[in-house]
Design brief:
The structure is a single chain. By secondary structure, this protein is an alpha/beta fold. It has one domain: Rossmann fold. About 45% of the residues lie in helices and about 15% in strands. A 4-stranded parallel sheet has the order 2-1-3-4, sandwiched between helices. Helix 5 links the parallel strand 3 and strand 4. Helix 4 packs across helix 5. It starts with 5 loop residues before the first strand and ends in a 12-residue tail after the last helix.
């Protein structure tokens, strides 16, 4: 079943702690991504592991936060995805900032941006 939008690119999905642990939801975002025309969804190793943001955690324990983030981003880059998709603004700030600092070609996008058909190669995509 399609949602009526299209997006050209290979994406991988990060399960945010709030959506996964707080609401117990992991299938719905993937179902939505698969319903977008042109999306190639590749599973992210460790998708259910925290990105290291955790509210003030990243400020209180920056070294630990950075180590957690580095593992997450390395996994995302190994998938060959154009975009790392998530549903949480905190996760997107953490991962997008990390991707920028690494000089990565992978972009962090919100699920809503994919549903809206934002071009995965657009320079306007938030990182």
């Amino acid at each position: 079943e399609r949602v009526g939008s299209s997006f050209k690119g290979r994406v991988t999905y990060h399960d945010s702690c709030h959506l996964l642990r707080g609401l117990g939801e992991s299938a719905a975002p993937r179902k939505l991504l698969r319903a977008v025309g042109g999306v190639e969804l590749v599973e992210l190793p460790g998708a259910d592991e925290c990105c290291g943001f955790g509210g003030s955690f990243s400020v209180r324990l920056p070294e630990v936060s950075s180590a957690i983030l580095d593992k997450k981003l390395a996994n995302a880059e190994r998938t060959g995805a154009d975009c790392l998709v998530a549903c949480d603004a905190g996760c997107l700030m953490q991962m997008g900032g990390g991707l920028t600092r690494r000089g990565s070609r992978v972009k962090a996008l919100h699920l809503a941006q994919v549903l809206a058909g934002e071009d995965s190669r657009s320079e306007a995509a938030p990182r």
